[in-house]
Structures are given as structure tokens and as C-alpha cells.
Amino acid sequence: MKYRKKPVEVEAFKWTGGIDYTEDPEWIEEAIKDGVVSFREEGSPKVHMLIETLEGVMTSQVGDYIIKGVHGEFYPCKPDIFEETYEPSGAQVDGKLLAKELAKPIKNELDKRSRYAQRRKGFS
Fold first, then answer.
1. What is the pTM (predicted TM-score) of this model?
2. Domain residue limits, the chain
3. End-to-end CA distance of the chain
4. For residue 65, which of 52, 48, 53, 83 has the smallest C-alpha distance?
């Protein structure tokens, strides 16, 4: 029997080895803080990223892609394999912007209630 891989969207970024931290997504920063991701020979040209996975610790080199899977797991992938397997989906989510947008209706409702409470105070 033959099988075809299901289409799955993942989040990923190409690791620069610390050259450009502005490209690092928030989820990798959280993984570093949580100890899921660490580094060997940090600050040197031979820096490696160590990622704790269900299969054990995997090592990533500069230029590898770091993938956040659909279940929140992390793993490295060599650029040639990544580029052969994945393509941009066109969807990009900025978590900070999303939170800000989702907060607007709540803020508007709170502002409306506050204005109503101020008007009611004037009638007391």
C-alpha cells in the first residue's frame, strides 16, 4: 500500500546562529527560557542549538530550519530537506498584533461601560 503525507502547516524559521535575533520567533525564545532549547559553544562560530525532543536531544547547526510542530514540539531540519518538503503557506501570524486586535472589542466595551457609569454618576 502507498501513503501520501497529509498537508500540515508548521511554523519554522531559519536559524542564523544569533547573528540576527530580530528574526527569532517568540516561541523559540520561550523554549529557550523553558530549557527545551539550549546552546553549545555559544558565542563562537561553532555554536550549536540543542533541542530536546521526544526522540532525545537533537543538534542544529547554523542555517538549519527550526520547526515548531502541530503539537508544540520542536525539531531541526536541514535546509535542503526543509525546502524540498515545505513551501510558504501565505499565512503568517504575528502573535502581538493578533492579541492587540482581539483586545480592541474588549477595550471598546470597557470604555463604553465606563462612559455609561460616569453618566449615571451625574444623575445620583
1. 0.66
2. 11-88, 93-124
3. 78
4. 83
